[in-house]
Amino acid sequence: MSWLFKDPVLLAAVLCTWLPFLSMAVILIFTRHKPQLSSYISIGAVSTSLICALYLLIKLVHVGEPVEYRTAWLIADDIIIPFGYLFDPLSLLMLLIVAVISFLVQVYSLGYMAGDPGFSRYYAFQSLFAWAMMDMVIAPGMLQLYIFWELVGLASYLLIGFYYEKWSAGQAGKKAFVMTRLGDIGFFLGLILLVLGFGDLGIVAMNEAAQAQAIPSYLITASALLIFCGVIGKSAQFPLLTWLPDAMEGPTPVSALLHSATMVAAGVYMFSRIFPFFAASPTAMAIALAIGTITMLLSSTMAMATYDIKQVWAYSTVSQLGFMVMGLAAGGYFAGVFHLTTHAGFKALLFLCSGVFIHEYHSNDMRDIGKGGGRSLKIPMVCMTVGALALSGVFPFSGFFSKEAIMGVLAAYPNKIWLLAGLLGALMTAYYSFRLIFMILFPKKVDATMPHDAVHYHQEKDDKIQIDHEEAAAGHGAAHGHGSSHGHEEGHGNVFWYMAWPLIILTTITLVLGFFQHSLEGFLLGHAADAHGGEGGHGAGHYALLIAAVSMGLAGIAWAYYEFGRKGASQEGFLARLPKTQALFANRWYIDRFLRRFLDRAIYGGLTNVFTRNDRRVIDGGIDGFCLFTIGSGRLFSFLQSGMLQYNLLVMVAAVGLVVLYFVV
Amino acid sequence: MEQVMSTINLSAIYPEIILTCFSLLILLMQSFSTPRFKEYYGYVSLVGVLAALAFVVMEPSSFFAQTVVYSFNDMWVVDNYARFFKLIFLLGTGLTILISMKYLEDEAMQYGEYFALILFATIGMMIMASAGELITLFLGLELMSLSLYVLAGYTRVRMVSNEAALKYFILGSFATGFLLYGIALIYGSTGTTSIRAVAASVGKYGLYSPGLVMGMAMLVVAFGFKAALVPFHMWTPDVYEGAPAPITAFMSAGPKAAAFAAFARVFMEGLPALQMEWTWLIWIMAALTMTIGNVIALVQDNIKRMLAYSSIAHAGYVLVAFLAAGELGISSVLYYLLTYTFMNIGAFAIITALSGRGEPRVFVRDYQGLGFQHPFAAVAMSLFLFSLAGIPPTGGFMGKFYIFSAAVKEGYIGLAVIGVVNSVVSVYYYLRVTVAMYMEEPSSVREAEAAAPIFSPALVIAIFISAYGVLSLGLFPSSYVAIVKQSFLALQ
């Protein structure tokens, strides 16, 4: 073990990435029945990770070359599959993001999850997630990345289905797991292709070889497209985007941690991890750009039609992920990663603020929250507005800078249609964010009747969830004597501040992060920054673009104010006048229905039938026959194998005779 | 590769000297001390094994220095190949001692001879691995065999144990006869018994005499008997079933590895020219060994007997790698034998713990419901069985992976296919035990006569070491592969 202590960097890395695992094991095995202790163990582990991540960042910030600790896991011919640690600016940054958000969310959960019967289990899963995500981030090879990628998926499945007694939560967990797995099949096939064709799964080696054109281009394109399937699944890109809104069935802190800031960003992270590899294939980049754009536009429209506060942020997450993919696919490595960073901050902020409202009013519906007096919760309200401003890309919040960077990259792209799409997206983003803000801030006095069936359907569903939620909460209260503190006027005290502090910290981050754009850029791109002259459109049209983008955001806000904010506004939105479109948006463009039908027809109706028949007849039948034959021959042989000594000797002599005969003849 | 030669270099046989001293010490303790020392025989022999282990690694130079030391006029070779085998033997011996101590106490058979004989057998194996001479080889083999005959019949009050010893002895002496006859024929043809001299002679004149070929055939028979290859395997089930469980564990690991060590040295170093001649013979033997071992194991109800057949099958897998030869082939032989030592002794450790006094409980039905009564034992047993069946992430899987990839690489695709089909078949009988442990209710009869399994600290340590070995060989194969490759180089 002494090698571990000789190198403080390695020690920090090991502590950082393995303490959460330890904490999970300890909680599951020993402290399951001591919820308080479990949460302290988990938070202790993650805060140590945070410190180590900071240490690593400070220690390695000026190291030009990536630092790698790796051991070959399998040696077979010339296939190299490394395991270990890889520290370069990207992984250090992401490690810090994951550690910060995990830490804040775990602290926040002290308040949000207080009194839940599954408190220990919750923290065990949180630790599992932190461990898997961190080990994924620092993976030096694609197989390690893939393994932890799947573990992250497992943690997500467990946390989405955390309220497993609720049917819809179980379904949502399953849906998330199956849909992301669908993409992962492509990912894994891509890796296999790469092993067969190239033989080295080291990330550095892959990137270098791709840049040096040492890999044939058809291989890069094929494997990049397959690997991109993983991004589609994990980062909820079109057409696998519908699992993410459903994943909001999990506790709100989980949504903040997994389904906005970190886990779903894993896809984008992986994209940027092997960015040079992707960049070597223009075809793959073009397809990724198209998919990112479609995702961004579709999900923005969806967000305009829902009243569920968490669903709005979920759709918005999907659309922002699409935006990041656009940025990366258009060649803006820094722009994509920067937006990933800022988005992690403000989206976690938005979710955690929503969590406070949901905790307080026991409702996900923004109208109910507004009527219940959501504006009276000062801290979350202000924080949420800050988050929404950042999301809309308003100066001087962090979102402004990163959106601007991506817009710059898109503007540099020859085909301006992508830029137009981006601007349209910015408009819609601002509209739906402030639709939500104004509905909570200026609730309508008179009850509006439900305008449409589709909304009606959603409303019913939400009500059902809400009732379940309340019942569950009441049950916990009775069991734990937390009935009064569970979100009512008295007994805020600690619980409230556990939830408020992370909000304030995240708000601060959102406020200041944007101004670090240049230092971050220098850090991430290293020397390359000078050569490129930096990314993000420092071209001639820069100011025009800047004005265009900001005015899009402001226009969206104004539009929302006109429909929802001003006195006497109908608070119905333009969609209410276009029922067909609203139904289309509210039903998520019928993607789910299409997938369902596709599954039923093509998979269950066609393929499954054929395979079942093959299974029953050919495979089962063949195996049964083979088994009967082997067992029969086993009995025969063991009959021949008698314990009689003379017979044994006879067999041996006969065998010797045969051997001699073999050699002589 | 540096070669050091001298007439007499005692440092080359330090490990053997140490072990001899310790076995004599135990015998002296037995004769001169009061019975209350009887608990210490095991610990004393453990110390001996550890000391020998240290000397194997360190003397006459460090393992990674890649030196080859010839001593006693070429009668004795210490190279990394021999050292790796010695590590396997000492590992097997150490684990066996750990699982024996409590067993002997329960059987009321705590005599020093037991440990002394185990150490003598180990010395015999080590001599086989280091033999540079056919006569040295013969001495080692006899020392090992004679000790094992006695050990097989150690629980002398039990009829099956006596039967096992007698059968083993009679068939074994037959095999020894073949070995001697073979050596004589080779000496007659080449005028030497030194393996290197035989190689030189064959290299010079070719396979000039039928006597040489006949001698080789006899050697194949003798080694085949010791390694329990079909058709020379007939003794295995009876002996394994009758011998005390720890001794069965011991016999299934070390002596088998020793036979392969000698086999490879004589045939790879002494008679590489013969390789073309024996290909088909080994091919047939490997196919038969794998198939017959696995197929008969399917219908066994006695776990010891089942593992006896399974050990025959595993010898078949090793033979496949042996046939593939070359760096990959021999490396995978070494890798597999190491893995096999861990997993088989691990499984036998559990069997020892559960068998009860006089070993009445060694049937599959005795394992019903074990998963609920003794979760630790059941998990460990499942791990070893999974490894034996070759399921990842265990060492058994990696071992098989290396063996079959070596076979495919050398063009023995048919044999690799037979091997893979065989490992599928073997899953059935290994999993039968797991199924019994986790999915079947304990029968009422068994509950009535059930005695709690005996988990002494030493036994638990042995189980942990084995489990660690099995898992680390499966999860981190590359570091072991590096060592194995070092060992192979010596044979070149």
Architecture blueprint of SSEs:
The complex is a heterodimer of chains A (665) and B (492).
Chain A (H helix, E strand, L loop, with lengths): L1 H5 L1 H22 L5 H26 L6 E10 L2 E9 L1 H24 L6 H19 L4 H19 L6 H31 L5 H9 L5 H18 L8 H4 L5 H10 L3 H9 L1 H5 L2 H22 L5 H21 L3 H29 L4 H7 L5 H15 L5 H15 L4 H25 L11 H28 L12 H20 L4 H9 L2 H5 L9 H24 L13 H8 L4 H50 L4 H20 L1
Antiparallel strand pairs in A: 1-2
Chain B lengths: L1 E4 L8 H19 L7 H19 L8 E5 L4 E3 L1 H28 L4 H19 L3 H19 L6 H32 L4 H11 L4 H17 L8 H8 L2 H26 L4 H24 L4 H22 L1 H30 L14 H4 L1 H15 L5 H15 L3 H27 L4 H6 L7 H19 L1 H13 L3
Parallel strand pairs in B: 1-2
Antiparallel strand pairs in B: 2-3
C-alpha geometry of chain A: globular
Largest sheet of chain B: 3 strands, mixed
Helix share of residues of chain B?
Answer: over 70%
Query: Per DSSP, what share of the residues of chain A sits in E-state strands of 2 or more residues?
Result: under 5%
Q: Give helix and strand order of chain B, one letter per element, not per position.
A: EHHEEHHHHHHHHHHHHHHHHHH
Oligomer: heterodimer
**C-alpha end-to-end distance of chain A:** 59 Å
Structural class of chain A: mainly alpha
Termini of chain B, distance in Å?
10 Å
Mean pLDDT reading of chain B? 87
Tell me the strand percentage band of chain B: under 5%
Largest interface by residue count? A-B, 29 and 41 residues
Largest sheet of chain A: 2 strands, antiparallel
Count of alpha/pi helices of chain B: 20
Give the tally of structural domains of chain B: 1
Overall pLDDT confidence of chain A:
79
Number of domains of chain A: 3
Walk me through what this model shows.
The complex is a heterodimer of chains A (665) and B (492). Chain A is an all-alpha fold and 665 residues long. Helices cover 75% and strands 3% of the residues of chain A. Chain A has 28 helices and 2 strands. Chain A has helices at residues 2-6, 8-29, 35-60, 89-112, 119-137, 142-160, 167-197, 203-211, 217-234, 243-246, 252-261, 265-273, 275-279, 282-303, 309-329, 333-361, 366-372, 378-392, 398-412, 417-441, 453-480, 493-512, 517-525, 528-532, 542-565, 579-586, 591-640, 645-664, and strands at 67-76, 79-87. A two-stranded antiparallel sheet of chain A has the order 1-2. The radius of gyration of chain A is 28 Å and the shape is globular. The model of chain A is unreliable at 446-492 and 528-540 (pLDDT under 50). With 492 residues, chain B is mainly α. Chain B has one domain (3-489). In chain B, strands 1-2-3 form a 3-stranded mixed sheet. In chain B, strand 2 and strand 3 (76-78) form a beta hairpin. In chain B, helix 3 (80-107) packs antiparallel against helix 4, helix 9 (235-242) packs across helix 12 and helix 12 (303-324) packs antiparallel against helix 13. The mean pLDDT of chain B is 87. At the A-B interface, strand 1, helix 27 and helix 28 of A face helix 6, helix 8, helix 9, helix 11 and helix 20 of B.
